[in-house]
Amino acid sequence: MMPTIDQAPLRIVILGSTGSIGRQTRAVIEHRNAAGPRNQFEIVGLCAGSDTGALFEQADALGVRELALCDDQSPINDSGRNLRRGNCAARRLIEDTQPDLVVGAIVGIAGLDSTLYAASSGIDIALANKESLVAGGQLVIDAALASGSRILPIDSEHAGVWQCLLGLLGRDYTPPTPVSDAISRITLTASGGSLREWSVDQLANATPSDALNHPNWSMGAKVTIDSATLMNKGLELIEAHWLFGVNPDRLDAVIHPQSIVHAFVECVDGSTIAQLGAPDMHCPIQHALCYPDRAHGVCDRLDLRSLSRLDFEPIDEDRFPAVRLALDAIETGGTAGAILNAANEIAVDAFLRERIRFGQMAGIVRETVATVRAEPTATLDAIFAADASAREHALSLICTRAGGVR
Description:
Layout: E1 10-15, H1 20-34, E2 41-48, H2 52-62, E3 66-69, E4 82-85, H3 89-97, E5 101-104, H4 112-120, E6 124-127, H5 130-147, E7 151-153, H6 156-169, E8 183-190, H7 200-204, H8 208-211, H9 221-229, H10 231-244, E9 251-255, E10 261-267, E11 272-276, H11 282-290, H12 322-332, H13 336-352, H14 361-371, H15 380-401
Parallel strand pairs: 1-2, 1-5, 2-3, 3-4, 5-6, 6-7, 8-9
Antiparallel strand pairs: 8-10, 10-11
Helix pairs in contact: 1-11, 3-4, 4-5, 5-10, 5-13, 9-13, 10-12, 13-14, 13-15, 14-15
């Protein structure tokens, strides 16, 4: 993907530019452009959720005029830029700029609209917004396969799987092409988050500050809580199902506290390929931006001599039921992923606001999934209807548990 010296720079739109992935994407681009002899990447559009100040600061620093803000309520004191606002702002930004690559780092199902538009338009997507595939995987994958859009995963685990598959299936392999029958199993690793060693009783009353204290990764609040519940791994398994075309019987996850091995790919002959790297998101971001080339990066290097041990252990589903809920959602299909994701988003938000306890989140998600009926066909209307129903049901459960405060 990285342009050669006689090509124009790759034109990039960053969705979620003020978040952790967005900021690190900018760092990778600036590092590669500074390596010269010419700019390899050009940022032509930026999109934020609600942080107007940070968005405008980025725009000024990068000389970008094409902007989008998903929140239409934030006050705006500057009209000197081409600013789109509201729920469709991210998609409109892509429509207007027609980039070569979209970095999809919007948090939650809010990223589905823009991801689906890019996939339908044949635009490559460097994807960090896993909820787009969790809720709308069939739509996005079908659109990408029809248009030729490539989905280049930024999540460290999926980027690890992809890099293993490049060695096994050839340099031209990109998702969402299904893997061959020679691949018997894909295993994602999970750090276990900040509460990995806590008992069921301890987990029940963990506070937001406890859960947000991740030992290895620096991430946004929502994904850090998902890491602590292991819902993040559950969502990633659903994402892997869509990205690589594998069913639950060929998917697995294990706890790996050191966060050095990001993924394993097992072949039918018994050989297993692993991808290792320091826990630094700059690495998978650069891999997606520069594919199929390898270039000197800004990410931390892995010092094998400093590794005294690499531990792996099974996931305790009694303490962390989220992974089983996710695998069941794959089996159910249709809008089940949208229901799971919506219930989890509501539960995490309530926990961060200290309206419910840590131990209540899984129960709210489980009850919502069991109550809200999954439609067998995941049309866009059906996905958003399931999302709305699941949010309403989860909110009612939270209202009950929080003593009637809605």
